[in-house]
Write a structure and sequence with these properties.
The protein has helices spanning 3-31, 64-84, 89-112, 129-147; strands at 37-41, 45-52, 115-120. The protein is α+β, with helices and mostly antiparallel strands and 155 residues long. The protein has one domain (3-147). It is globular.
C-alpha cells in the first residue's frame, strides 16, 4: 500500500471513529441521566451512563494531565508509525482506529475533565466506542508487527 493510500485510510477511519464516538456520547448525555442504566439485552448488554475521570477501568482517577499527555503521546507515536514507512493495510487500519479513539477520549478529557462511558457488559467495567477502537487498533498494530512478512531490517 502506498504511503498516501495508507495515510488516507488511517485518517478517514480515524475521523469516522471520532465522529461516531462523539455522536453516541452526546446522545447518551442528552437522553439519559448520570448513572442511569437501560437494558439492551437484559443481563448481557446495558447502556449505563457514567463519567469516568480515570483511564481504562477507572485507573489513574484524578490524573487528568497524565492521561491527556498519554493520549497525546499515543496520537504522536501512531502518526509517526504511519509516516515513517508505507503502512500495510493492517497498520493503516489499526492506526486509524487508535487515532480516532484516542482523539475522541482526549477531546472529552479536555472539554469536561472526564470521559463519557456507556457500554456495560455487567462483567467488565463500563467503557465506550473509543475504548473499543483503541483496543482493536492496538491489537491490529501488534499482530502486524509480530506477523509482518517484511524482514525485520526493513521495519
Amino acid at each position: 500500500m502506498s504511503r498516501s493510500a495508507g495515510l488516507s485510510l488511517a485518517v478517514v477511519l480515524g475521523l469516522i471513529v471520532f465522529a461516531v464516538d462523539q455522536l453516541i456520547k452526546r446522545l447518551v448525555e442528552g437522553t439519559m441521566v448520570l448513572n442511569e442504566s437501560r437494558p439492551v439485552v437484559d443481563g448481557v448488554l446495558h447502556l449505563t451512563y457514567i463519567e469516568n475521570s480515570g483511564g481504562a477501568f477507572g485507573l489513574l482517577s484524578g490524573s487528568q494531565l497524565l492521561l491527556m499527555l498519554g493520549s497525546a503521546v499515543a496520537l504522536g507515536v501512531v502518526a509517526w508509525m504511519l509516516l515513517v514507512q508505507p503502512p500495510s493495510r493492517a497498520m493503516a487500519t489499526g492506526g486509524g482506529l487508535v487515532l480516532g479513539g484516542a482523539a475522541g477520549n482526549l477531546l472529552d478529557r479536555i472539554s469536561s475533565g472526564g470521559v463519557t462511558d456507556y457500554l456495560d457488559l455487567r462483567v467488565w467495567p463500563i467503557f465506550n466506542l473509543a475504548d473499543v477502537a483503541i483496543v482493536c487498533g492496538v491489537a491490529l498494530l501488534v499482530i502486524n508487527a509480530l506477523f509482518s512478512q517484511e524482514p525485520r531490517e526493513k521495519r
